[in-house]
């Protein structure tokens, strides 16, 4: 485990050396070994230095080592320093020949220049040829001098040693080639990773620029509910949410649709998203006072691929204050106009009733005309009442502890006569009690609209089912009928004011298309949602989702 750090440190130190120092370090092992062996042997064989060939060999070794420092290798070509290991073979040939009787195994020291040449950048054929020829040159003088009866050491040095060192050279070359291939691959992967990192940083910068450019607040949370991304617009919304006078421990001012009641923490958009909910068009109010803004929120959760669990969510915040104020102004205008229509219509209907049912006899033809006027005046009066009701539906709701099952029962009792006349059965499956924080007057109005529509749009008889249940802090209420149904395009527009389906108009079913719009406004004022699923000839199902009463409140009650 400690070898690799040591080798890496040695490589880093070697790379920092000057060219002369690098050549000297490569030559140093051979010089030290030769010097040590000769010095040690001279103590046992004092006459060793009397051989002129040994002296020449030692002088060559010393000269080559000094040349490592004296020659300006940095000014010469990169492979110029390889002349040193080549001349080492010559020096070893003189040294071995001069000390053959004492040190016949010096030919093995050819391993040092062979390693140097094999690990260098010299061409493979050249380094292999020198690695074979060098040991052969060292061994031949002794082999020739002992002919015709060479010793076993001579035969080994001539026949085996060159092949052995050639094999060593080949092994080093292959290992070096493999190391270079691995290094090239690592370098390529490193380059690819650098390119990916640069591209990732570019995409991150582009994403941040886009997010900070749009006028929509965005928040992303991870699987643990921790915020991992937000943009400038959202930070501005958060600043807005902290303006005002605090009335509690929470410094954020996020209110419900009445602009005054603070939302409980678990009903706020980010908390709902962390709980795994997916929603859209969830309207809340940020801040307080003159700077208060209406914010429409939406959330989409992400699933973990491994276990399909919660993997995070993205929540979007959009300022819709201008739209909300425009709708409020429109509703106020509709209410004022409808109110102004109400008085003359009441007068017209009153006088028509006196004329038609008074003591004076009216001829048949004028009576029929007056009856037509009365019917159309009553129809216009009903339309005015619906418009007034529609404008009133957007007023503030007053929430209190309400039993939804009681509201369903009251609506079914009220609709019983209409159902009998249309030959429609009414079936309820609602647990009792079913507590919620709701406005009983407004929510009862919404239930009356849904049940009345279910009966009205089942002209051929059938059955209306009303179901309700509590699930994860929400009340799910369904009103299903077996009536004429709608197409998918009609279903998408069914909550639009004054919209009526083609089948309803063809069947001459009375109505002006305001009931479901009023119902949607009431449900959203309660912080809930309403959806519709339908198929032509298969009936329709309206699903209302409302916040249930908090468990702590229910326990206290």
Characterization of the model:
This protein is of the alpha+beta class and 557 residues long. It contains 18 helices and 13 strands. The protein has helices at 3-16, 19-44, 52-70, 83-98, 111-119, 124-145, 152-213, 232-241, 269-274, 321-357, 364-393, 404-414, 416-421, 440-456, 488-493, 502-506, 515-525, 551-556, and strands at residues 217-221, 227-230, 254-255, 279-286, 293-303, 310-319, 400-403, 424-429, 435-438, 462-471, 474-481, 529-535, 539-547. The longest helix has 62 residues, at 152-213. The chain starts with a helix and ends with a helix.
Shape: rod-shaped
Structural class: alpha+beta
**In angstroms, what is the radius of gyration?**
49 Å
> Reading side by side through the largest sheet, how are the strands ordered?
2-1-6-5-4-3
Count of helix runs: 18
Low-confidence stretches: 245-251, 552-557
Arithmetic mean pLDDT: 81
Distance between the terminal alpha carbons, to the nearest Å? 69 Å
Beta strand %: 15-25%
Q: What composes the largest sheet?
A: 6 strands, antiparallel
Helix fraction by DSSP (H/I, runs of at least 4): 55-70%
Instruction: Give the number of DSSP strands.
Output: 13
